Amino acid sequence: MEALADGDEQCPACLTRKSASPNLRFKINNKCYHRICESCIDRVYASGGQHTCPYPHCKNTFWKNAWRTQTFEDLNVEKEINIRRDIYSTLNKDEDDFINKRAYDDFLELREMFVMNLLLGTEAQATRRKLNEYKEANGLVRHKDDGSAASKSKTKRTSTTTVDHNYPDQSGLIEGLKKIVVPDVLPPYDPLEGMPIHKDYFTITDDGMDMDTGYEQYKKDDMLTVEGYDFREALEESLTRAFAGLGVFVQVEKSNTLADHATKVAAAATAVGLDDPF
Ligand SMILES: [Zn+2]
Ligand SMILES: [Zn+2]
After folding, report:
1. What are phi and psi of 52, to 5 degrees?
2. CATH classification of 9-70, choosing from 1.10.3470, 3.30.70, 3.30.310, 3.30.40?
3. ipTM of this predicted complex?
């Protein structure tokens, strides 16, 4: 870039200077960090799709949404913060994840080395490759379903990776991690918390169902079999509603005298430990 007056900025693509057009605003991307003015970005992406960075001879290709407004005055600060955000979100272990403090310190040192490598461009390729291997091995890669062969083969590799819980980091990049403790499989949820479903009030026997007890006409009744109930279920449901919670017992109901009735109800209630309902 040619020498500019203090505080002046120039778009490297259209050579517009900030001193000449004060409304000039710049956009940057997270790859080559070239600062290009907004109108150049709009012009390049007018037809949509991906385009190479408008900076002379820069070969990086981007979608338009890769270009964003610069947050920090200093481009180096901007760049470092982005690199840190990216690496920290990948290598996101806490001290609790490690067997001891020493292992955690080693991890922090490794992470800092990665940040510096990417920031200064030393071994940047090897560093990116290691990060990608780590992401792949630990299932952190989100595969866009673009249908390309490359993405398909990647998806396949990730999905066939079997997780060995003895090695918390499958890629071997981070050492000294605690083993992952897989919790025991919980029994299925029981909303009744162990309360027996068994019904004390009545029993429907298969004999009873088969005998000519007058049920036959109800078996064809749509009112009883609607909504997927089978007849036995409908019968059970209506018997439960009729008898549950009322302290009504069929034998008692059948007795002839009222006096007998009263004593039997009391006896039955005591027998099952209920308060006298009457
Ligand atoms: Zn421009
Ligand atoms: Zn560029």
Report:
1. -75, 155
2. 3.30.40
3. 0.91
